[in-house]
Fold each of these.
Amino acid sequence: MSTQTVEAAETAAPEAKALRKYELMLTLNPDLLESKLKAKLGDFEDAITKNGGKIFSQDLWGKRLLAYRIGKFKEGIYAVYDFEITPDFIKELNEQARIDVDVMRHILISVPEGYVYTKYKEEAQAMEEERPRKRKMSSHTYPGASSVAPAPVAKIAPAVEAGPAPESQPVDEAALEKKLDEILGDSDLKI
Amino acid sequence: MSKKYIFSTNQKHAPGKRRCTFCTNQLGDVDYKDLPTIKPFVDGFRRIKARYYTGVCLNHQKKLTTAIKRARHMALVPFTS
């Protein structure tokens, strides 16, 4: 059995040797338009695929707040690629990321053979799951606010539902105006 | 990260119970993208905590430092605060 595995390894060796697993993370300029962003990411994808590489997973995190300011930017667009390519081309790919004006930061690392890309939760989300909040803000209502606040909501809601019947709308508007005057006339109101 | 891992980072005063948290949870490599895992090993000034305090084994401490430094470079984690 051992000889068989050795043979299999030998036959697969020339292909397996040529390719290695890597991971590329890019932090892009947040002011990039969506079309330009697509083109920019497409460039990197092409650079990988046209040189005999193979992309396993592409993960676009989207805009994210940076931990510190880079240049004048406080946020960046993050993208992560998990791919396979010949080691000869890695230098060129690194250079391409380095030269690019819109790439603020990049990291290109080799990854162990059995590596599977996993998307981790945000820190806040993980904390929330660990110990969920006991109170919710929405459930609490102030006694003073209850007389004023729910009334306009109740008025607006039926108007939206009764879309096909336009006769009822002017009545609602008049009532709303009255209510508004009442609210604005209130001496307790602070603006 | 569906499992709940034990992260007891204050092991300075428990000499008999000093265990590497990564070894006990059978975590091999430390990923620089895994911020909730990295967080307990960084102090209030965002400096990497010494092995003396956290009880992490040397093998994992080396992996942890590279992960934190990579995360810092990509602005996922601040250098100082």
Amino acid sequence: MGRWTKFIVGAVAVLVVALLLARLVSNEYFFFAGYVVLQFVVLATAWNILGGYAGYVNFGSGAFFAVGAYTAVALIKAFAAPLLLQLAAAVLVSGLMGLAIGAMTLRLRGIFFSIATVAIAVICETAVLNWGFVGGARGATVLQPPAPALFASYARLLFVVMSLLAVLAVALARYIEISWIGRGLRAIRDNEEAAESVGVPTLKLKLFAATASGALMGMAGAPFPLYMSFIEPTSAFSLNYAVSALAMPIIGGTASWAGPVIGAVLLGSAQQIVTVTLSSELNVLVLGVLLVAFVVAAPDGILGLVRRLLGKAGAK
Amino acid sequence: MSFELLGEAIIAGVLLGCFYAAVSVGLSVAFGLLDVPQIAHPAFLVLGAYGAYYLGGFGVDPLLAGVLLTPVFFLAGLAVYRFYHATFESRGTDAGLRGLAFFFGIAFIVEVALILIFGVDQRSVEAAYIGKSISLGDVRLPMRMLVAVGVALVLTAGLMLYLSRTFTGRAIKAVAQDQTALALMGADPVRIKQWAFGIATGTCALAGALLIIVAPVEPGLGRLYIGRTFCVAVLAGLGSMPGTLAAGVILGIAESIVLTSLGASWAPAVAFGLLLLVLAVRPAGLFGR
Amino acid sequence: MSEALLEVDAVTKRFGGFVALSQVSLTVRSGERLGIIGPNGSGKTTLINCICGSLYSDAGSIGFDGVEVTRFAAHRRARLGIARSFQVPRPFSSMTLAENVAVPLEYVAHRRSLHRADVSAEARAILAQMGLADRADAPTLTLTQVDLRKLELARALATRPRLLILDEVMAGLSSVEVDEMLGIILGLSRQGVTIMMIEHIMRAIMRFSERVVCLDAGCIMAEGTPAQIVQDPNVQRIYLGD
């Protein structure tokens, strides 16, 4: 239990801060922006479980995100399901999708899993475009229920909810990372054949990581329709999610749960500023360039750079 | 489905398949022979398409544009491979993840750059052979698809001859099989692979021009072709050129039949489904060992 | 006469048109020291891969300790007690030496039921057996060839194997290093581990093996004691020409 005390204290602190902010900050835009950044924390953390820990690269994170969002929409349209149920359903559906894709491709070389994620993104978007129940290409509006007692607006509630989801996602990632599961995944990433030969059940572990990753991405997408009060395929399946989910962990550092968090907070905040001041295409271009720059020059991400700096300081 | 409809679908599929072969030839070399995770190949195709569009603005025929741009793309390919090898291939371990992320980043940058320069609207070109068809009995064959067949045959036959008759070509096939042996024979494997990658990228100029000849393009088109080009390259088997042609035709016919019976929405799934089938049943492909 | 631990029966493996192994049959007794020799391309590594599960054979069967393992995944065979070293060492390069050894300890020897500190202690003990204790917390990138081979051995040992298969573990080592490695391996044999050793270094094969098998072009060409093998006309032809 000793390894978790510091983390639990930190997590509780984060939640308390979120609640306080929801009470004290008057600028509504803060909560919109904050929600987006926290959403990216979940997405980046989810991506890293399969990408950073196991080495299998998901190019279609947007599909999992959107499937979570549309599962929520379907439930809202069907019987006005409460947020909790939407979250649970999104986790289930996206998790199953991750498992299915994994079962089809994780026996093969990594690149084929990656191609599969591109294909599923295209297929899911086409399916949703043709699904009238959730609005198809025209989209669907979603009514935000009235904000409960403690919150001045529904956006503030979603902000706190996403903080909780972020904490849960990071906690799961940390658990996987420091447990025997994480060591097995790292062995798979370092040398899969050797891992198998020393007793690591590589397929089972990879399927677990794919399922967990997909489920968390769907979880990030579930509150999205309520957040926007509207949903339509182009924004839900936006390429920005796929690239961000991949770039944020790589830039932040894939070795540990802290990397995706750093990447998401830094880049997510920067994105908010750039999109407002410049254009959204430029924002996405910069993200791509940063991704390539880090992959080439700083493969261990910001975490790695910091470690090297600290190491040099310690040596002196 | 009626016999007549099936027949039409098959003919359309053969034409479509030759087109798919033409756009996948470069990937057969880059991924099939050199084992580079060239997920940016479709992005380079789209780049070639826009190159043809741009030159088309000056009145240049798209096929000619493709030919003119080939040396440019070839040089770019040399540079990209040199960089890729120095940064990733020579390092091992998680270079696989990073190499993949690198090409994904490149593909992404290309797409966004094209959006910034040309906008998201579809672009097309005009040429004498676009918009006309030839009638063979009851069947109408669009001329631009026949152009695609011609280009496909030229590319696959040309590369096949190059790989089997020239010294560099045979060295390329050798390096795909046994790098160490080649090095012991005095040839530099890295330079040969670099040359091969240059050729693979070079084909994207002409194949990209074909892309915009066959249908209008927009910057995000690359993503639809990742599944198709990899399906053809894998089904072909280890960089085989005749295999690429055969695999392209198989995919073309499959997609055409699905298009006729189930509709356009399911077309992207065909390539991917076929790829999975091949990987499950015969991962070495049609002509692989 | 100890019983058979490994029974390879008429195993065949093809790669496209090329037949790597053709009806290979082999029995290894418990506690035995078996040497495997043969020219490059004769199918030695393919045979290992089929026994360990890295590859599935196209025909024939493989039995280990009475269990038919022909279709088992490699990790299941590792859990049953088959361990191997790779021709080119494959360390987990993002981990320290101790962490490398901890993986098989957690996944095979203890099935996660042991406390972290004990796993760490046991990993260090195994590394000490190989003379690597002082570098337990070093990254694998700093290791020399010999030490990488020893790490391979340490990792294989951490699975508490009953059968240990060594694939050219001495390739590229100096004479002194060969003797050092041989000493370690003979020590393991004395502890009761059944060992199959593939080698090109005849000195090691002769000193190590109770029985030697010679492979060529996917078939077993000769079988016998080291003394017999050296005199076998087939072996002489393979190695020295007609």
